[in-house]
């Protein structure tokens, strides 16, 4: 009698985790954050809700981790290591490259629909907003801070510049344009933001 191989628990868990990520992002995009529940995510993913609570303490934790995973996938598809900003020695080129990847991500329906729902909810739901910023946005913004500080060390950025404020010159306008639909977001737009931020508006 031939013994069947034992089920691979790690593979089964990873499959369930992926299904939960997909279900959470789909639901928050379809019905909004307030109506999304752990029970709904579990039903959509085809798992028991106890499976979700074994890995996460709340639906917010599920969604934030799903977004982090989605961001990693987007970076890998673009040929970039996740959660890095390149340092080629050319600050303008490096910032333009990572912002182009951000444009692709913001325009990707997999990301855009649930991201808008969460961003809108974060405005009126302060605890969620703080968690969203602290767990998802701040680690990414810190990458810009680190890259700008490296540029300062190399003499490419003035020593008196505060990197945390400086990054807002190109990140904040992109986020505002995307959120408010004031105009399309394009590579040309983010390239121009970088040029304006680094070289200013006065004649050189």
What do you see in this structure?
- The protein has 204 residues and is mainly α.
- Helices cover 73% and strands 0% of the residues.
- It has 10 helices and no strands.
- Helix 1 (9-31) packs across helix 2 (38-45) and helix 6 (109-124) crosses helix 7.
- The longest helix has 28 residues, at 126-153.
- It is elongated.
- The model is unreliable at 2-7 (pLDDT under 50).
Put the structure in a nutshell.
Helices cover 73% and strands 0% of the residues.
Which H/E pattern describes the elements? HHHHHHHHHH
Shape category:
elongated
* Rg (CA only): 20 Å
Describe the oligomeric state of these chains in a short phrase: single chain
Task: Supply the number of helical segments.
Answer: 10
Low-pLDDT stretches: 2-7
The span between the termini is: 82 Å
Helix content: over 70%
Number of extended strands = 0
**What structural class should be given to the helix and strand makeup?**
mainly alpha
For the biggest sheet, the summary is: none
Strand content: under 5%
Salient structural properties:
single chain; 204 residues; mainly alpha; 10 helices; elongated; disordered N terminus
Per-chain topology:
Layout: H1 9-31, H2 38-45, H3 49-55, H4 59-77, H5 91-107, H6 109-124, H7 126-153, H8 163-166, H9 168-180, H10 187-199
